[in-house]
Specification:
The two termini are 29 Å apart. This protein has 2 domains: 10-136, PurM-like, N-terminal domain (60s Ribosomal Protein L30, Chain: A, 2-Layer Sandwich); 151-327, Alpha-Beta Complex (Phosphoribosyl-aminoimidazole Synthetase, Chain A, domain 2), CATH 3.90.650. By secondary structure, the protein is an alpha+beta fold. It is 36% helix and 25% strand. Strands 8-11-7-12-9-13-10 form a 7-stranded mixed beta sheet, sandwiched between helices. Strands 1-2-3-6-4-5 form a 6-stranded mixed beta sheet, covered by helices on one side. Helix 3 links the parallel strand 4 (76-86) and strand 5.
Length: 333
Amino acid sequence: MGPEDLQGILSGLDLAFDDPRLIVGATDDAGVYAVSDDTWLVQTVDFFTPIVDDAYAYGQVAAANSLSDIFAMGGTPITAMALAAFPIEDLPVAILHDIMRGGLDKVREAGAVLVGGHTIDDPIPKYGLAVTGVVPAGQIWTKEGARPGDLLYLTKPIGTGILAKATKDGVIDHQVEASMVAWMAQLNRAAAQAVRSVGTIRSVTDVTGFGLLGHALEMARASGVTLEIDASRVPVHPTAFRQAKAGEVPSGTWDNVRYVEKDLDVVEALSESELAVYADGVTSGGLLISCRPELSAELESHFAAEDVQFWPIGRVVAESGHHLVLGGRPVTE
């Protein structure tokens, strides 16, 4: 489902509630609700069909992806509930066991506890989590806080949607697949801790299904600014450009391209397949962070202390006709 599909589904629905305790509704990475003067709840849910063949790895990736929205809002996950659909008559139950085991390991790694869940019999396997976290009152991160002069950081490579399709089609080697899975299974916990240690950063989102450009556009629109992204500095998984050129582009990625292109200024001429990489629907991607320049050295120091890889990929400027500017030439291999 592309971003325009989602907008169409939500169009006409009254998503506003007259409740002063609702801090953030259906406009950001997760919902936020004040349960006391000191503590806000952060809640999210996500699940999807298998992205890799290995059941345990699939469970890890799906759980990491579900937990990511809590970290992207500045929260600490405390509980999770598993959601699963599984063809119980057609596949060995051991597969579902391994999926659940992978997810459970990530819940524990995140410092949360699994408190239950729900499973249905369905011909197409699906798995994910509903996650609840907490954040001190007033200390959430949203997409609205980017300001002109800020520097942009990204904490994971993009291109996993393209590589996942190539994996299913059997056209990438095991080493590339293993690297892709390792990145997707990596929690954003350490990256979020580094941002939290700076203390005054307020604009963060995670890069997932709408791709780097789609989520950057959401941040730019919410903040009323333009994000300038340097294509040459964006980390891209090995072979993603080659696979995109070979046609291994999921249909959802083309939906993302159509979503951003009306508000995107591409400074250097890019091929259709190159642009697709920057709009590629990512699974369990990294954090996109907008940071004031005077805090950048401190942020980078905390990234190093938390052993988090990061890439400075651009900057925020005053709104300039387009909310997104993509400059520079891709480093294709």
